[in-house]
Amino acid sequence: xxxxxxxxxxxxxxxxxxxxxxxxxxxxxxxxxxxxxxxxxxxxxxxxxxxxxxxxxxxxxxxxxxxxxxxxxxxxxxxxxxxxxxxxxxxxxxxxxxxxxxxxxxxxxxxxxxxxxxxxxxxxxxxxxxxxxxxxxxxxxxxxxxxxxxxxxxxxxxxxxxxxxxxxxxxxxxxxxxxxxxxxxxxxxxxxxxxxxxxxxxxxxxxxxxxxxxxxxxxxxxxxxxxxxxxxxxxxxxxxxxxxxxxxxxxxxxxxxxxxxxxxxxxxxxxxxxxxxxxxxxxxxxxxxxxxxxxxxxxxxxxxxxxxxxxxxxxxxxxxxxxxxxxxxxxxxxxxxxxxxxxxxxxxxxxxxxxxxxxxxxxxxxxxxxxxxxxxxxxxxxxxxxxxxxxxxxxxxxxxxxxxxxxxxxxxxxxxxxxxxxxxxxxxxxxxxxxxxxxxxxxxxxxxxxxxxxxxxxxxxxxxxxxxxxxxxxxxxxxxxxxxxxxxxxxxxxx
Length: 495
Ligand code: GLU
Prior knowledge:
By secondary structure, the chain is mainly alpha-helical.
């Protein structure tokens, strides 16, 4: 079998949209599953809307997702250049070749004339299409048009008959060439239309499979005869369904974040995004839900790409995000958390010492089970990295009559030991439990005053972790402050 070659062909007119990222992912998965080649091609023929900044941003986001490419604008390859703006000459040659073959012709209709005819067709209840006005111009007529100063575009002569799109997942979709109409392949300014550029490039770059959104199905019907006219093998096609917002409309800004860079900035891990986008597009053969990128590549089959539109479900993404945060390497997520902590003023600017980094890892290890996204880290880490303060809701535990006694006992146990590791912390908690059980002080009554004393907060990680993270002097100072606060609260209550 021939080597599988697929391409991801973004237009650099915005940041990488989550729907476009999904198309990239499906192509990448297919290439990797088939041990084929994944190509990135920049479709920047729209010179007024394309920018280098967006191209860089798209490539950066793709790299962040782990979708590495084998040929592309930055690394080159056998069939480059991989930016359409650098291939205009080739498109012009191909358009000329089609004219020579009688498969394309020059069209002198002005935009104004085309618009008038379009309106007339709509008014008559017809589907607008180019009527073929310039299909059969003689040389004299062409010369006359030129003399009038008209500049020709080039149109593809769509052959009569039926066009069948064989879609790998949807089966055959038939179109009549009547509804298509001869379309422009080269504009009067010499720039290629999307249709010509994409077909020439897919042909020249030996693309074997085109996986793209279902909004391209009618384009595919135009492309198939163009591939044939240019003598290229027709690739196989798979059109994936759209992603919709919860209200059933096309996923857009009003539904929340739509670009990969926003999700990245919000503290999602790439594996969560990939996992979510894959499940949104394709059904695994079993009920498993958590996949790494490599596991997805193993499990992926193009035939199972879903045909029905998928509703974007942020709760599902958030759940996957939390799961992947728990699975990721601790060192890696610690590094990702650092900028969020700096921004919240919980870490100083500049590098961290080895010791501080090791402590930060312990903190992240203790709290990562609570995180949905990594940007939430300041909220959970502030009990360790911020100023110690007892939050107002926590007072209700310090005001309990037995609280000072429990805290005194804890202070005594800690005073008699050195620094605590997690095991040491567990031992201390066991001893406290034993000591207070005979007095009937158990469960929350026992642990909440301790939690409040150590962290100032009513929620947080397990107490042995807390005892392990805070250093001994800090623990003693916090307990001492909490005892004073407990005594003060009880005094004012008695008054
Ligand atoms: N540049 C096109 C887009 O961004 C890609 C079309 C294609 O995959 O053929 O929609």
